[in-house]
Amino acid sequence: MSRYRGPRFKKVQRLETNLPGFTTKRPIIPLKKKRERIYITRLKEKQKLRLHYGLTERQLLKYVRIAGKAKGPTGQVLLQLLEMRLDNTLFRLGMASTIPQARQLVNHRHILVNGRIVDIPSYRCKPRDILTGREKAKSRNLMQNYLDSSSSSHKRLPNHLTTHPLQYKGLVHQIIDRRCVGLKINEFLVVEYYSRQT
């Protein structure tokens, strides 16, 4: 799988958004806006979504197609699919400080889902899934560092998750609601952008 290795601040500045766990000394200054065409606004929303979740174009198109076939509004279903990914769920639980770090924890086989090792970051978490760290000391040390840093920043946990930091365990109660996502993204513009390709 490919991933973006270029300068992140330039992308964040251009899209006028902020990434979770991304800190910079330079302030993000909104650019002077001219009247943008509809295509450009849709493209920017799509790029924000890709940058936030660290997805490739192909992966995002696949999620849009799955969301289009599901029941309910396509935009909401798309965000639910992206939020219920294993790497994003670990980030929301506070077991990793950024989504790329959560992806690395999963790739290096430090995470168990319902007692089994899962090394696929795009694994879709379901209600009543139990996420734990492996028994290995290295896994526990990594997760303890992340949990300590997240508890010191007092990050609020979404309603659909609970965490037990002493047991290195998190629980998924239900599928996330759109109000709990907390992204400043208009998902309907993303769906409109892909409407010709699906």
TrEMBL record:
<keyword id="KW-0694">RNA-binding</keyword>
<dbReference type="InterPro" id="IPR005709">
    <property type="entry name" value="Ribosomal_uS4_bac-type"/>
</dbReference>
<dbReference type="GO" id="GO:0019843">
    <property type="term" value="F:rRNA binding"/>
</dbReference>
<keyword id="KW-0934">Plastid</keyword>
<dbReference type="InterPro" id="IPR001912">
    <property type="entry name" value="Ribosomal_uS4_N"/>
</dbReference>
<dbReference type="Pfam" id="PF01479">
    <property type="entry name" value="S4"/>
</dbReference>
<dbReference type="Pfam" id="PF00163">
    <property type="entry name" value="Ribosomal_S4"/>
</dbReference>
<comment type="subunit">
    <text>Part of the 30S ribosomal subunit. Contacts protein S5. The interaction surface between S4 and S5 is involved in control of translational fidelity.</text>
</comment>
<dbReference type="InterPro" id="IPR002942">
    <property type="entry name" value="S4_RNA-bd"/>
</dbReference>
<dbReference type="InterPro" id="IPR036986">
    <property type="entry name" value="S4_RNA-bd_sf"/>
</dbReference>
<keyword id="KW-0689">Ribosomal protein</keyword>
<dbReference type="InterPro" id="IPR018079">
    <property type="entry name" value="Ribosomal_uS4_CS"/>
</dbReference>
<dbReference type="InterPro" id="IPR022801">
    <property type="entry name" value="Ribosomal_uS4"/>
</dbReference>
<keyword id="KW-0150">Chloroplast</keyword>
<keyword id="KW-0687">Ribonucleoprotein</keyword>
<dbReference type="GO" id="GO:0009507">
    <property type="term" value="C:chloroplast"/>
</dbReference>
<comment type="function">
    <text>With S5 and S12 plays an important role in translational accuracy.</text>
</comment>
<protein>
    <recommendedName>
        <fullName>Small ribosomal subunit protein uS4c</fullName>
    </recommendedName>
</protein>
<feature type="domain" description="Small ribosomal subunit protein uS4 N-terminal">
    <location>
        <begin position="3"/>
        <end position="83"/>
    </location>
</feature>
<feature type="domain" description="RNA-binding S4">
    <location>
        <begin position="84"/>
        <end position="148"/>
    </location>
</feature>
<dbReference type="GO" id="GO:0042274">
    <property type="term" value="P:ribosomal small subunit biogenesis"/>
</dbReference>
<comment type="similarity">
    <text>Belongs to the universal ribosomal protein uS4 family.</text>
</comment>
<dbReference type="GO" id="GO:0015935">
    <property type="term" value="C:small ribosomal subunit"/>
</dbReference>
<dbReference type="GO" id="GO:0003735">
    <property type="term" value="F:structural constituent of ribosome"/>
</dbReference>
<comment type="function">
    <text>One of the primary rRNA binding proteins, it binds directly to 16S rRNA where it nucleates assembly of the body of the 30S subunit.</text>
</comment>
<keyword id="KW-0699">rRNA-binding</keyword>
<dbReference type="GO" id="GO:0006412">
    <property type="term" value="P:translation"/>
</dbReference>
